[in-house]
């Protein structure tokens, strides 16, 4: 793979990590809003799950950023995106018109991100990653 392609993969990893790092940090700093969504979906232990989701998002976002355990993290984030789309955003015909539109956008965003994370899991993090430095990724 060319150096240009590896730089593009690095840039893509940075972009893909941004949302989860910020969202995870936000949930850990103030989990009340997320706990409300979780409780609204009928799940138990909403506050604990909000903190768990925040830690998951922050840690997986950081892992994508530095390219650590990229294949595993890519599959986990793809699953997380589909899971949250279906559980929290897919029933978008249940709120006000604005909420319905926002949830429809969130479903499309999550499904699209799942595709990006599947690509990352399949093709790896590129040579500018911790996986490459520790020999877990071999450039094609």
From TrEMBL:
Its membrane topology: Multi-pass membrane protein
Keyword Cell membrane: yes
Location in or out of the cell: Cell membrane
Top-level taxon of the source organism: Bacteria
GO cellular component: plasma membrane
Pfam families referenced in this protein's UniProt entry, alphabetically: DoxX
Keyword Transmembrane appears in the UniProt entry: yes
Record keywords: Cell membrane, Membrane, Transmembrane, Transmembrane helix
UniProt main location, coarse: membrane
Residue spans crossing the bilayer: 7-25, 45-65, 72-91, 111-130
InterPro entries, A to Z: DoxX, DoxX-like_oxidoreductase
Similarity comment: Belongs to the DoxX family.
Protein name per Swiss-Prot or TrEMBL: DoxX family protein
């Amino acid at each position: 793979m060319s150096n240009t392609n590896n730089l593009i993969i690095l840039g893509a990893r940075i972009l893909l990590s941004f949302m989860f790092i910020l969202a995870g940090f936000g949930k850990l700093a103030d989990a009340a809003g997320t706990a409300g969504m979780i409780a609204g979906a009928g799940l138990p232990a909403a506050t604990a799950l909000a903190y768990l989701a925040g830690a998951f998002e922050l840690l997986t976002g950081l892992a994508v950023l530095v390219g650590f355990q990229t294949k595993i993290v890519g599959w986990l984030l793809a699953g997380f995106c589909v899971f949250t789309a279906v559980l929290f955003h897919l029933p978008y015909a249940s709120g006000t018109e604005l909420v319905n539109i926002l949830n429809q956008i969130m479903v499309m965003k999550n499904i699209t991100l799942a595709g990006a994370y599947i690509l990352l899991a399949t093709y790896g993090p590129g040579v500018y990653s911790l996986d490459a430095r520790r020999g877990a990724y071999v450039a094609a």
